[in-house]
From TrEMBL, chains A, B:
Residues 7-331 form the DhaK domain. Its EC number is 2.7.1.121. Keywords: Kinase, Transferase. It comes from Ectobacillus funiculus. The keyword Thylakoid does not apply. This is Dihydroxyacetone kinase subunit DhaK. The keyword Transport does not apply. PROSITE patterns: DHAK. InterPro entries: DhaK_dom (IPR004006), Dihydroxyacetone_Kinase (IPR050861). One of its GO terms (molecular function) is phosphoenolpyruvate-glycerone phosphotransferase activity. Signal peptide: none annotated. It is an enzyme of class 2 (transferase). Transmembrane segments: none annotated.
Length: 334, 334
């Protein structure tokens, strides 16, 4: 598979270099660790820091979400691989303004281990209090009774948004953690994969799907989904994704949600809008109000084909956080 | 090629329907013509209207750029086909606040004919004064001495931004036209194609490229470029694109530019940041200052693979327009 890259071993470092050069008013690399990026703006003392991160290949996640009202720092791993503790600890130290730091990250073994170790190290070495928020929005990745085993995918955007808004509003560490966990508890995502991506090092497809096949629940790194079958029309696919979400998190007439239709990489915005059209029809028919919509590439899997639908159930508190302004290179909300 | 669509003949209407449902606070369809979208916000009397449009398949262009500080309306054509005069006239009528309307559109035979006819009809039927701004940023599409024959591609974003800002600042029709034409005169784009897209109706690739081949100067609808050759590394490709731009529009130490690295559809942001990295190195070495950077999918060709680099040379006046805030579904600038 063709890629506009130089030496495949340098893609992550060159990507970061390009990103920081493109948006110097937003982000800077730490001199101690080039995989640690923090906001370039002055953060006020006493504000809780929000730290995100994970493997590369999901751009604009995660580094695109460092900015006002969102995250203060990010630790960047290799492609589809967790960052080690070092860049996490360095970023933690840089964004600790005396009120502690909240880690928001997806539920993957490597991330759980490395963010966990980093939290211990940050406490031991710098006395920083760290709150942990694990994102587990992927309905397809484990049954409801084992929802703590679920992976984190596109819904992490909502959790980051809630944590960033709460921190920006001056909430303390415990409260930012509470709000972010609530956003995770109220978020569900279901995805569908159509075509594989390839890692720059190998150039080989990450999984196989037949020419007219799709896979429901396919993971963001090509983890097996729950059902392979013939590619269906957009309306049928949307019906299936929303049905699985609602079976897991029932919504009723009068409920209010935020909707994210997320592209996995090579899926056109035309297709995403067509998918959104059906999602809106389903929700509207049930009397569920869409408070805010997000349609585009928010968390990709390199050039994978497909999309996901995330619903965040909103109460008054979460609505306030979702409506809070944000200003990042990859997401601006006035 | 797999797509998340329903009946291929309905893709454009379903896409528009989804788009308007996703962003009702920004855009609305006109009851007179469902291919005419206008801003959902109240526009003040006496403000010059800015109208954009063209074929579908370039999303988020063009409809994603209707909003505060950008365009007031858009006419949406079929995939890769100009909208007919009707939706253009209807949108013109809706956004005319007594100060006339400026059309910003790419230099393609169909668009030239249809926007031209629409301008005459709007004048005849409603007495609306229309100013015309043809975008001709694609260096590869005609030699310098025939630059008026060049096609409009991703640089149209800069021209729309300038026109939208000037209109928002209260400039009159003649002045908005002058500013937008100046932005076009100061913009150059060079692109590279790696992989084809396919039209929903046919499902067939729009052109052929060998597995290790790229095409410099490939058009946004698959129009032949100026050179096919072996896929090179990102740095070499960036060197070539920028060299061709600078040969056409010389820049010198101390000059200031805005840079847009635009993805054509399936190219990852990782690759776009790597491309930007090199563009920044080249400009920085020459002492050219990058005032503002844009990296992402601003004008696509369905799921085509590849990217383009646009440079807008900035003087004080254009800097002011580029820095002007904007608030559209697909582009927000604080």
């Amino acid at each position: 598979m063709k890629k506009l890259i130089n030496n495949p071993t340098n893609v992550v470092d060159e990507m970061i270099e390009g990103y920081v050069k493109a948006f110097p008013q937003y982000v800077k690399q730490l001199p101690e660790n080039k995989r640690s990026l923090v906001t370039a703006k002055e953060t006020r003392q006493g504000k809780v820091g929000v730290l995100i991160g994970g493997g590369s290949g999901h751009e604009p996640a995660f580094m695109g979400y460092v900015g006002d009202g969102m995250a203060d720092g990010v630790a960047v791993g290799n492609i589809f691989a967790s960052p080690p503790p070092d860049p996490i600890v360095e970023a933690t130290r840089a964004i600790d303004k005396g009120a502690g730091v909240v880690y928001v990250y997806g539920n993957y073994a490597g991330d759980v281990m490395n963010f966990g170790m980093a939290a211990e190290l940050a406490d031991l070495e710098y006395g920083t209090s760290v709150g942990m928020v694990l994102v587990t929005d992927d309905v397809a990745s484990a049954p409801k009774e084992e929802s703590h085993k679920r992976r984190g995918i596109a819904g992490e955007f909502f959790v980051t948004k809630a944590a960033g808004a709460a921190a920006d509003k001056g909430y303390d560490l415990e409260e930012v953690v509470r709000v972010a966990k609530k956003a995770n508890d109220y978020t569900r995502t279901m995805g569908v994969g159509l075509t594989p991506c390839s890692l720059p090092q190998t150039g080989k497809p990450s999984f196989e799907l037949e020419e007219n096949e799709m896979e429901i629940g396919l993971g963001h790194h090509g983890e097996p989904g729950i059902e392979k079958g013939e590619l269906q029309q957009a309306d049928q696919v949307a019906d299936r994704l929303v049905a699985d979400i609602l079976a897991d998190m029932p919504l009723h007439a009068g409920d209010k949600v935020a909707v994210l239709v997320n592209g996995l990489g090579s899926t056109t915005r035309m297709e995403l809008y067509i998918m959104f059209r059906r999602v809106e029809q389903i929700l509207s028919k049930k009397g569920i109000e869409i408070h805010r919509s997000y349609v585009g590439d928010y968390s990709t899997s390199l050039e994978m084909g497909g999309c996901s639908v995330s619903l965040l159930k909103l109460d008054d508190e979460l609505t306030e956080f979702i409506d809070h302004p944000a200003d990042c290179p990859m997401y601006v909300q006035r």
